[in-house]
Amino acid sequence: MLVLSRHRDESIIIGDDGIVITIVEIRGDKVRLGIVAPKEVPVHRLEVYDKIQKEREDPASKEKPD
Q1: Of 12, 20, 28, 32, which has the fewest beta carbons less than 10 angstroms from its beta carbon?
Q2: What CA–CA distance (Å, rounded) separates 52 from 16?
């Protein structure tokens, strides 16, 4: 894992696709990030991504509406 230090309003760029992550706010133990990425690059919180992957592996695990 690469660990970088950044201050508020500072950014990092990932790859040549122009993915930019900016520190928007630091409040206590929480950091708000702004992410600019091409539309074809999905951006999810890890817990959401994990749920999507689980549903792809086992479509029967999806919650069914009442």
Answers
A1: 28
A2: 26
Q: SS3 for 39?
A: coil
- Strand runs labelled E in the chain: 11-14, 19-27, 30-36
- Number of C-alpha atoms within 13 angstroms, CB side, residue 39? 0
Strand 30-36 and strand 11-14: the pairing is unpaired
Question: Which long-range CB contacts under 8 A does 44-50 form with residues at least 24 apart?
Answer: none
Phi-psi region of 25 (alpha: psi -120 to 50; beta: other; left: phi over 0): beta
Q: Give the pTM.
A: 0.76
